[in-house]
Amino acid sequence: MLFPMPADVAPLLLLVAASAVILGTVLQRVSGMGVGLVVSPTLALLLGPVTGVLLTNITTVVSAALIGITLRHDIDWQRYRRLAPLIVVGSVPGALLVGAADRHWLEVIIGVALIGTLLTTALVRIPPMSGRLPAAAAGTAGGFLNTAVGVAAPAMLVYAQATNWQQRSFAATLQPIFGTMGVVSVLVKVGLGAAPVSELPLAVVSLVVAMVPIGIVIGGLVARRVPAAVGRKVAIVVVTVGALSLLGRGLAGVIG
């Protein structure tokens, strides 16, 4: 049976969820990332950390597939093949964490993980690297983060900085990477019983999926006028606010 929503909360929840998906999809179309960054903390606040992240994973699959079609000519499939196999390796411990952690502690973990990874990409100078090890580390870390908190973008951004990955190819190749991560995360969490599909509110799922194409169309128009760096900065601001709110609620629950 689908998780019921109180009648007085449902309209506001749907409006906020729809807005988050459109904004996240616009940012992802502009800079290559954004859906997980914006949608994950928003849906985690609205639906709880387990259901919210699971729906984020589903949204990521849809958005990555549609945007990937648009940017298919710039996808670096060789890099994708280096990263993709390790996604499963990271997803399993991520799913086990989701299944074992208390709800409030999971909110704290998600908040800390989001803020920590963003600070790492913003403040830490990443030395140049090459070879298979950086790709293996990025794929594993991305799989874990995507499954546990719904956001793999920081891990991919660190890898891009370390390997001097050009923005156009980076933004395009992120789409099959995010799509694969989303599919693996859903399958692993559902398969291990860490995130029951029965708790997904059908109204929210339907609306969220329907908003993705709208965001992509708007994002295509915005991408012609707004640099990718600006889109990335907007995503960072939004995810910081959401992560701090989630962290605060989690700490309140743990302490109280």
Q: Keywords, please?
A:
mainly alpha, 256 residues, 11 helices, disordered N terminus
Write a structural description.
- With 256 residues, this protein is mainly α.
- It is 80% helix and 0% strand.
- It contains 11 helices and no strands.
- The protein has helices spanning 10-31, 35-47, 49-70, 77-83, 85-100, 103-123, 132-149, 153-163, 167-191, 202-223, 228-255.
- Helix 3 (49-70) runs parallel beside helix 10 (202-223), helix 6 runs antiparallel to helix 11 (228-255) and helix 7 (132-149) crosses helix 9.
- The model is unreliable at 1-9 (pLDDT under 50).
- The chain crosses the membrane at residues 44-71, 83-99, 105-124, 136-160, 200-222, 234-255.
- Its main location: membrane.
Layout of strands and helices, then pairs:
Blueprint: H1 10-31, H2 35-47, H3 49-70, H4 77-83, H5 85-100, H6 103-123, H7 132-149, H8 153-163, H9 167-191, H10 202-223, H11 228-255
Helix pairs in contact: 1-2, 1-10, 1-11, 2-3, 2-11, 3-7, 3-9, 3-10, 4-9, 5-7, 5-9, 6-8, 6-11, 7-8, 7-9
Quick structural gist:
This protein has 256 residues and is mainly alpha-helical. It has helices spanning 10-31, 35-47, 49-70, 77-83, 85-100, 103-123, 132-149, 153-163, 167-191, 202-223, 228-255. The longest helix has 28 residues, at 228-255.
- The low-confidence parts are 1-9
Number of domains: 1
Question: How do the SSEs run, as a string of H and E?
Answer: HHHHHHHHHHH
Strand content: under 5%
Subcellular location: Cell membrane
Membrane topology: Multi-pass membrane protein
Organism: Dietzia lutea
InterPro entries: TM_pro_TauE-like, TSUP
